[in-house]
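2024-03-11 09:14:02 DEBUG pipeline.ingest accepted 1 chain
2024-03-11 09:14:02 DEBUG pipeline.ingest length=312
2024-03-11 09:14:03 DEBUG pipeline.predict start
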Amino acid sequence: MGAPESESNGIGTMIEVMDEPKSAPMPAAAREPLRRVGPPPPGELPALLLEHATKRFVVGRKKKSVIAVNDVSMSIRRGEIYGILGANGSGKSTLIRLISTLLTLDGGRVEVFGHDVVREEMAVKQLINRVSVDAAFFKKLSPHENLSYAARLYGMDARKARAQVIAILARLGIGPKRLDRPVEQMSRGMQQKVAIARALLTSPTVLLLDEPTTGLDPRSKLDVQTFIEEVRDIHDATIVLTTHDLAEAERLCDRIALINDGRVVAEGTPDELKALVAREHGGEPTLENVFMTFTGRSLDDDVDEDKEDDDE
């Protein structure tokens, strides 16, 4: 079972109507890309389905069991940008690793276009790719060499891969002069752009982005955000995005799930979540208030708690 055929979004398609000639045809109105906001309606295969997903870790000298992902369920449509917000340690990155088959489930199930991540791991890997905040490279090699190596691992044609590598890097602001510079000589932001370019080589149907713009300067962050929207609109990709940037989440995400202590505590569109906080809690309709209401902490509190944990 593969990913279903893409729906037509009407972009760039001309419909010829046989009729009496008109003296002055009206110009066609610009159309927005087709936006599908979940959950999927009955009969539509979810791009990503989680049912009661659970993951435990044994930590510390006393071998204490900690639940990192606790009974999480979500259903995501093809073409959605689905955001996951939560404090550090809330389970966001663990959830991404479960979906990408880097970790095994202790309970529940996860499916990518109907493929079970446990029973059909190889089929799932052909549909997904992942970008993490700590992407690894061969630091002595250039971006072009790193991506060409990845293309060979993916079994891509070398000539086609080279052209695609150059085009993707150029779109992300990495010009020809930087193609052959060792990655270790590039800034943190540039390295993250290379990681995103590498993930896009295979034109994944589901793209998992774990804080992809962390450490980027404002211009680079804007470039990456725009590119994420293009990937969704042009390639009909489903994107799961974890982020601490509330403005980024509001701009990019069709729906957002808030995770606290491994559980989903709220889910909806940004407007739905803001309206809920204003209506039921009397707060200002902002995503920051949504975050504070459902997690009990602000972004600053999140940083302070992490420091305390590190000190312990």
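2024-03-11 09:14:41 DEBUG pipeline.report The first strand starts at residue 48 and ends at 59.
2024-03-11 09:14:41 DEBUG pipeline.predict end
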